TrEMBL record:
<feature type="domain" description="Gamma-secretase-activating protein C-terminal">
    <location>
        <begin position="495"/>
        <end position="602"/>
    </location>
</feature>
<protein>
    <submittedName>
        <fullName>Gamma-secretase-activating protein isoform X4</fullName>
    </submittedName>
</protein>
<dbReference type="Pfam" id="PF14959">
    <property type="entry name" value="GSAP-16"/>
</dbReference>
<dbReference type="InterPro" id="IPR026172">
    <property type="entry name" value="GSAP_fam"/>
</dbReference>
<dbReference type="GO" id="GO:1902004">
    <property type="term" value="P:positive regulation of amyloid-beta formation"/>
</dbReference>
<dbReference type="InterPro" id="IPR028010">
    <property type="entry name" value="GSAP_C_dom"/>
</dbReference>
<dbReference type="GO" id="GO:0005802">
    <property type="term" value="C:trans-Golgi network"/>
</dbReference>
Amino acid sequence: MSFNQFLYPHVESHPLAENHLLLISEEKYIEKIHIQVIQEDGNRVVLKDSGHLPRERVAEDFVWAQWDMSEQRLYYIDLKKSRSVLKCIQFSADEKFNLMFEAPLDITLSDSGFKLVNFGCDDLQDQENLSKHLTLCVFTNHTGTLCVCYSPKFDSWEKITYSVFYFHKGHSKTFTAALGSVDSHVTKGLTFLNLDYYVAVYLPGHFFHLLNIQHPDLICHSLFLTGNNEVVDMLPHSPLQSLSGSLVLDWCSGKLSRAVLNQSYLLQFLWNTRLDYEKMGALHCVLSWGRDHPFLEAKIIQWISENISACHSFDLIQEFIIASSYWSIYPETSDMDKLLPYSSVLAWNTEIPGITLVTEEIPLPFMKVHSFKGYWEKLNSNLEYIKYSKPHLLYNNSMVQREWHSLISEEKTGRRRSMVYVRNILDNAMKVISNLEARNLEPRLTPLFQEEDNPQRLLMGLMVSELKDHLLRHLQGVEKKKIEQMVLDYISKLLDLICQILETSWRKHHLHPSVLHFSRRASAAEFTVFHIMTRILKATTSLFLPLPPGFHTLHTLLGVHCLPLHNLLHYIDDGVLLLTETAVTRLMKDLDNSEKNEKLKFSIIVRLPPLIGQKICRLWDHPMSSNIISRNHVKRLLLNYKKEPRSSMIDKSPGSVEFLPLNYFIEILTDRESSSQALYALEGHDNVDAKFVEEAALKHTTMLLGL
C-alpha cells in the first residue's frame, strides 16, 4: 500500500505537462517522482514514458511521517540505534529539496508500527479505539516556533499524559491530566490542534487545554479547562484531525473547518471565573488573538475596573498594561519576544488542580543548511538565542532608575548638569506625548497632561533613550527610524492604557474635574476612583513605569478630598501621595484659613522640599507661613556661622521690644546680613531680612500665648 501527494500545487510557473509526486510506501521509503504528460488523439492525456519515470529517494527506514501541504515540508522520524530522530525535508518551487534539520526525540516508537499524518485518511486509525494508538504531530508558525506534540498509548483510565517539545525554546513539558472517575472510560483519541500562538489539546468530553507555545515558560500563561466547563461540552465528541493553517477535519462528518478562538466566549469566561490562573490564561488568550483591538481592550479595562482587587497571585493592572503593550508592537518584528517583557509575572508557584507538569531541557535541532530564509531564518534565530543569550535580554525599566533619581535630586537641590542633556530627555518625552495625542483625538474627561510634571517627563524621556539603545543593540537589520517609532508607540501605549483605565472609572462613576473643589464632602464614587488610582500607582511604581503628567497632582487632590488628615499624612509620608507644586499651589489658593485647613496647610508645607517650600510659603498669607519663611532665612544666614567676641549694639530706641534674647538674636542676623557673602547667598529671596524675622517671631509668640 502506498500514499501519494502532489508537490507545489500553488506554483503557477510549472507547465501543465509537468508535475511532481511524493510517493510514501509502507515499505518505509519516500520517493519524489517527476511526471510528464503528453496529449494524444485530441484531448486524451497520458503519461510520457510511464515505465521510466525519474525518481529521487527522499527518505527511507522511517516509522512516522507528516506532510505540511501549505509549507511544502515533510517531517519524518527514523530510528537510529533505537533512538528516535526527527528530520525535516523542505521542498522548493525550483524542484529542489533539502534536509533542514535533525532533532533527537526522547520518545519510543519502535513498537508503534507505521504511522502517517496529513496524507489523507489512515486505515490504521481505528476511529472507535484511538486511545490504543499514540498521537504525534509537528506544529510550526510564522514566528519560528517548532513544536512536537506527543501522546503515548493510554495505560490508565484515571489520568492521561502528553508531552510537548518546544524546540524553539530548548525544553519539553510533560503534562499529566487527571480524568477524575475511574469509570470515565476513554475510547476517543487525544487531538492536538494548531492555533497559531497556541496549541489546543483536546480529549472529547474530558478536557480542553490551550498551551501558549510563544511563551511556554510559565504554566499560568496557558489555559486549562476541564470536563465541567461548558466549552468542553460545546466541542464535538468525534475525533478531529489538525491540518495545515489551523484547518480541522472532523473524521465522522467529513467537515473541514478553520479553528479559531471565540473572543466573546473568552471575554465571558474572563468575567465569570474566580480562579487566578484561569484569569491569567484567559487574559493572555484574548490579548494574543485580539492584538491592539480597541473593543477588546475596552471590555478588559471594564472588567479590571470592576475586579481591581480580585486577583491575589498577580497584579491585574500590571499584567494587562505589560501584555497589551507587548502585543501592540509585536507584529513589527518577531524578535520582540526576546527583547520586551510579555508578562509582569516572573515565577508561578501556585498549583493548577488536576494538572501535573514536568519540564526538562532537550537537545536543540541540528541545522543541516547554512543559508536561511523566511521561517527557517526565524527558527535559526530562536535556536541561536537559546545557545548564546545568557543572561536574558528582556528589557527592564529599572535600567533608568538610578539616572532618574540622580536627575530628580539635582532638580530638588537646584543643581543641574548639562542643559543640552536634560533638554534632549524632555524632547523625547514630548515626542511620546505628541505620538499619544495623535492616536487619541477624543477629548479626555480626566484632567491629565495639563501640567509640565518634570519628574514624569524625565522618566518618560529616559525610558525612550534606554529602550531605543536596547533595541538598536539587539535588533540587527532593522532601520533606526523604525526602531525609534516602535519605542514611541510602545511607551505611548503604556501611558494610553493607564489613561483608559482612569477614563473608564471616571465615566462609570460620573466624575467631572469639578469634583476637585473642596467645598463639599467626598462621595463614595470619589473614594472608589481614588482607590483605583492608588492601585495604578502601586502597579507602575514596582515596575518603574512612567505615569501621565498630572497623575500625581490629581491623585493628591483626590486624597485631600477623601482622606482624614492623619490618613492623608500617612499616605504622604509613605510616598503613596506625592506633593507636586501644582497640587500644593491649588490647596493654598482654594482652601480657606479655617482651623482645620490651617493644620492641613502647615502639615503639608513642612513636608515640602526646600525649593518648592519657599515658593509655596509666599502664597499663604498667614503667621504660619511667615514663621516657616523666617526659619529658612535664619537657617541660611547661620550656615557656617562662628561665634566671635563683639560689643553689643542692641537698639535702645523707645519703640524697641524689651526682650533681650530676641534682641540679641536679631542683632546677630543683622550683622550677618551686612556681610557681602551673606547678601550674595541670599540674593533672590524676596528681601526677607532680620526685621521680617523679628516680626514673625513676635506674631508666632503672640499666637502661641493666645494674646
